[in-house]
Amino acid sequence: MSELPKTKHCILELKDSWLTIWFNRPEKRNALSSDLLNDIKLTLSATNKDRSIRGIIFRGKGGIFCAGADLEGIKKIASGVDQAHENSLKMSFEVGELFRMINNAPQVTVSAIEGAAMAGAFGIACASDLILTMKDAKFALTETRIGLTPAQIAPYVINRLGFSKAKKLMLLGSMIDGNKAYELGLADYIANTYDEFSQILLNIKDEVKKCAPNAVAITKEILSLNQGIDPKRAAKFFSNCILNEEGREGITSFFEKRKPYWNK
After folding, report:
1. Are β-strands 55-60 and 108-113 bridged in parallel, bridged antiparallel, or unpaired?
2. What is the C-alpha separation between 117 and 137, in angstroms, rounded?
3. What is the pLDDT along the chain (264 residues), one digit of tens a residue?
4. Is the Cβ–Cβ distance between 95 and 34 less than 8 Å?
5. Strand order across the 116-118 sheet
6. Concatenated DSSP letters for the chain?
7. What's the rounded Cα separation, in Å, for the pair 122 and 151?
8. Contact present, 134 and 191 (Cβ < 8 Å)
């Protein structure tokens, strides 16, 4: 059995051979701070070779999955003078590395969506093997609406939805609910009530239990060979957007609660 790391913004719950990683920044809508990203990556590293852990569930405390990237951190990078380019590259690459680790985890991974899964959280969900959503959950790739690009997320969204559906969500930044996510094939399971939500998770665990853990790990390795994802190149695209005039305007307008200049 793996020794789980000490975490700052995650609660780790190991029960019946399943690990639940609870995002625990409810006061910030579980936004992906550098500490939270590091917590998740440390946990995935610690459990990578542990076949006694049959699956990993990603959930958010406070009734919300995750609001996406910590925009306060992005604002700080965008407004910086020294090393802004290097810092933006580093931040984007770290997010891309998280998606890669989730995608390549040898265990079955499940994103259990309540409340909202925005931007980077959309990426976490799409990098997971399975997505369960409440019917009233909200999904959106909001990057283009604030002058950014879902560079690290794009390959996972395309792999899950197909090119045409993924393109529409990424270009328009439209919000969809859990019902629409299920209809599009984004979500694998949908629940109308919390009791149903819990029961579906139990059913998934029961199905996974029937499968040999090493066979699952090898099958996931085979599947990952077709991903063709380049986090370094994606980081360059994202960095260029952060440092562009539009990126700075988009972040500023978000915090000032106004429309950016291209939406007037």
Report:
1. parallel
2. 8
3. 679 999 999 999 999 999 999 999 999 999 999 999 999 999 999 999 999 999 999 999 999 999 998 888 777 777 766 677 788 888 888 999 999 999 999 999 999 999 999 999 999 999 999 999 999 999 999 999 999 999 999 999 999 999 999 999 999 999 999 999 999 999 999 999 999 999 999 999 999 999 999 999 999 988 887 666 677 778 888 888 878 888 888 888 888 889 988 887
4. no
5. 116-118, 138-140, 175-177
6. -PPPPP-SSEEEEEETTEEEEEE--GGGTT-B-HHHHHHHHHHHHHHTT-TT--EEEEEEGGG--B--B-HHHHHHHHH-STTHHHHHHHHHHHHHHHHHHHHH-SSEEEEEE-SEEETHHHHHHHHSSEEEEETT-EEE--GGGGT---TTTHHHHHHHH-HHHHHHHHHH--EEEHHHHHHHTS-SEEESSHHHHHHHHHHHHHHHHTS-HHHHHHHHHHHHTT----HHHHHHHHHHHHHSHHHHHHHHHHHTTS--GGG-
7. 12
8. yes
Q: Which of these CATH numbers, 3.30.70.1050, 3.30.465.10, 3.20.20.140, 3.90.226.10, describes 10-214?
A: 3.90.226.10
Distance of alpha carbon 220 from alpha carbon 204, whole angstroms: 17
User: What length does the chain have?
Assistant: 264
Distances (CA, A) of 140 to 77, 122, 181: 23, 7, 10
